[in-house]
Amino acid sequence: MEKTKLGILLGVAAGIIDVVPMLAQNLSWDANISAFCLWMVSGFLIARTDAGVKGALKGAFISFLVLLPAAILIGWKEPFSLVPILAMTAVLGCALGFLVEKYGE
Q1: Which range marks the domain in which residue 51 is found?
Q2: Which of 43-70 are b and which e, b meaning 16 or more Cβ less than 10 Å from the residue's Cβ?
């Protein structure tokens, strides 16, 4: 599959994986939509960017860059809530980078 389409498709899948636990916690819709969009954008950027690193490392790097502005806002009010967010970003970002590199053409 073409890399850009794969990146967006995998980003949608990562967004769903990330939002499901958020729905179970009854978080606000703006937080859910924001998280979902983070993964769609990350998938696109991972597929289209040549960051000088490959695979999982590139995925984690780009995902953390996309998360950074929201992480500042979240961490300012609730610093401990960043722990699961950072963990999920690391896991999904690495997976997204690995899968886009492995299966993208």
Answers
A1: 3-103
A2: bbbbbeeeeeeebbebbbbbbeebbeee
Cα dist from 72 to 39, 89, 98, whole Å: 18, 15, 27
Is residue 45 within 8 A of residue 15, CB to CB? The reply is: no
For the CA atoms of 73, 36, 63, 20, the dihedral, rounded to the nearest 10 degrees, stands at 100
Tell me the whole-structure pTM to 2 decimals. 0.91
Count of the separate structural domains present in the chain: 1
- Look up residue 9 and give its two tokens: 């498709």
Residue 27: how many other CB atoms lie within 10 Å: 15
Mean pLDDT, consecutive 10-residue stretches, the chain (105 aa), reads 94 97 93 96 96 92 96 92 95 97 90
Distance from CA of residue 14 to its chain's centroid?
7
